[in-house]
Amino acid sequence: METTFTQALITGVERVAAWADLLDDINVFPVADGDTGRNLVVSLSPLRQSALGREVVIRELLLSARGNSGNIAARFFSGLLMADGAANLAGAIRQGRDRAWQAVSDPKPGTMLTMFDILVAALEEQPARFDATWREGVIQKLEAAVLSTPELLPKLKAAGVVDAGALGVFIYLEGFFNTLTGNGGAYRPITEVFGKYLKISPAFKESDETGCCVDTVLQVGGDDGETIKRLSAIGESVVVLRDGDYLKVHLHAADGEKARGDLAAVGDVVRWSADDLDTQVRSFRRRRVDLAIHIMTDAAGSVNRENTAELGLTLLDSYITVGNKCLPETHFAPEELYAAMRRGVKVSTSQASVFERHEYYQSLLQRYPRVLYLCVGSVFTGNYAVAMEWKKRNDPEDRFTVIDSQAASGRLGILVVATARLAREGKDAGAVIAFARENAARCQEYVFLDKLQYLAAGGRLSRSSAFFGDMLHMKPIISPLAEGAKKMGVVRDQAGQLAFALEKLAATLRSDTKALIMLEYSDNAAWVAGAVRPEIARRYPAAEILLHPMSLTSGAHMGPGTWAVAFLPALE
Fold first, then answer.
1. In sequence order, what DSSP letters do the residues of 27-66 get, joined into one string?
2. What's the pLDDT tens digit per position in 424-480?
3. What gap in Å lies between CA 36 and CA 166, rounded to an integer?
């Protein structure tokens, strides 16, 4: 593929990642389950890896696709990827459009399908010249298509929003065409273009949903038409993608176990995932929170997607790569990561691009009056420097506050939780910022590693040191500090780890101290919950104890079996 075309594919994905929370916030069709942004981020992630080759990327799109929006988009991009560059773009887009429409058992105008129709029509009406005038003409037609969606779907009109999937496609294509035509300038603010259609009407009431949202891969031959008829009888919102003998199927079913049995009668179930619709809808309903200041942090701080709904956070992900699979860390299944590490599969981490980080900052300042970015310690990543440089050029009103937490993992996580809770209590922006600055240095954390081999695999320790350390059953203890991760001790076994944790807690907390304590786990949640938590709860009855999965950035470096304790005493 041409280098510019490849970068254009990636730019679109990075823009969608930065705006995913907004897409979730307005997702009401076909079900108000608030997952369109998440599904598009996961589904389109394979487009970042064009170096693997077209066929591999198309297969990964099939396997990664989630939800209605993700599965339809994956089918479109399987056609778009048939283009090697700008020269044969129009034909590839038409092919992608046709595949997307064919994948849906009951296609509806007013969704991203309409966007694909408008895009094809725009390219046929005005053959591509790839200059600024041509680009702006295409973008204007796509804007109009998004704005038309409430008139095409009654549920959108009742909610007062545009279709989340259509907006996601617009955000992607604007980035794609800007890069393809050499425009590195600023984008028009999404909130300016679609402003009044980006907030659900208070009068809108979504009906309760039961059942589950299924994404599965079946191995099946035979006629597609007959197969789709059989699948349509199993559930609703059916989307079907074919790749050779494999079918990727998305549907909504009333009974997940029954649906799995019915699907097994159609073909061999190769992959299976199911989300509870009722849980997603209830989570979506409590997502909107009006605060004096919005909190952003790095996902490296051991807060996850479940916490964002509760605390009203925005997370900036790093990326985890396991073999050929690369995903934002909060979208990677922890059990998959740790199982791969135990098998010896190569694992690596990487930061979001500077462009993607800039898009995150811009998206938040367009949507919130004030933003506080509690940044992972500058000794660990370049995120603080990137944010401060962007702020100098783009924040003349000083609405974007960036604090170098000098922390990572649970130390950062517990600071974020405490600060976000204060913001949710309705405190003014100044008080929230002052609290974060005052408490950043008061947070402590001790991380207990099970084996040294994973640090060695990531280049953070010599392999010979790791070999002899593991042979001698050495389990190091580290703490993320302003100057970096510091070794705090070594023990022989889990009993020694627990004793060390209790000793450090006792040095700071009295038995009656009100404190926030976070216990983090990797693939050992049962042991941390069953052995560690009761001992700490017994000694500190006045403390609140949180049980959180460790950030996968930390887990990818320190490996399965790792756990940690972070704590913050309440101010007098």
1. --SS---S-HHHHHHHHHGGGGGGGG-HHHHHHHHHHH--
2. 998 899 999 999 999 999 999 999 998 876 654 544 443 444 344 444 467 889 898
3. 10
Residue 283 pLDDT greater than 70, yes or no: no
What does the alpha-carbon distance between residue 274 and residue 33 come to, in Å, rounded to a whole number?
13
Q: Which residue carries 């500077």 as its tokens?
A: 354
Amino acid letter, residue 300: A
In sequence order, the 6+-apart residues with CB closer than 8 A to the CB of 393 are none
Q: Does domain 3-197 have CATH number 1.25.40.340?
A: yes
Q: Would you kindly state where each structural domain of the chain is located, as residue ranges?
A: 3-197, 212-276, 284-440, 445-569
> Rounded mean pLDDT of the chain?
88
In this structure, of 37-41, 207-211, 459-463, the range with the lowest mean pLDDT score is 459-463
Strand 319-322 versus strand 325-328 pairing type: antiparallel
Category of 549 on φ-ψ map: left (φ > 0), alpha (ψ -120 to 50) or beta: beta
Considering only the top CATH level, what class is 445-569? alpha beta
Asked whether the domain spanning 445-569 has the same topology as the one spanning 3-197, the reply is no
User: What are the tokens at 114?
Assistant: 């309409």
Confidence (pLDDT) at 471: 44
Q: Are 103 and 272 in contact (CB under 8 A)?
A: no
Q: What is the DSSP letter of 185?
A: S
| DSSP β-ladder status, 563-569 and 444-448 | antiparallel
Tell me which of 3.40.720.10, 2.60.40.1930, 3.40.390.30, 3.40.50.10170 is the CATH number of domain 284-440: 3.40.50.10170
Query: Please, are residues 554 and 302 in contact by the beta-carbon 8 Å criterion?
Result: yes
**Residue ranges of the alpha helices (H) in 268-378?**
277-285, 305-311, 334-343, 354-367
Tell me which architecture the domain covering 212-276 has in CATH.
Answer: 2-Layer Sandwich (3.30)
- Report the distance separating Cα 171 and Cα 20, nearest Å: 10
- For 377-407, the pLDDT digits (tens) are 999 999 999 999 999 999 999 999 999 999 9
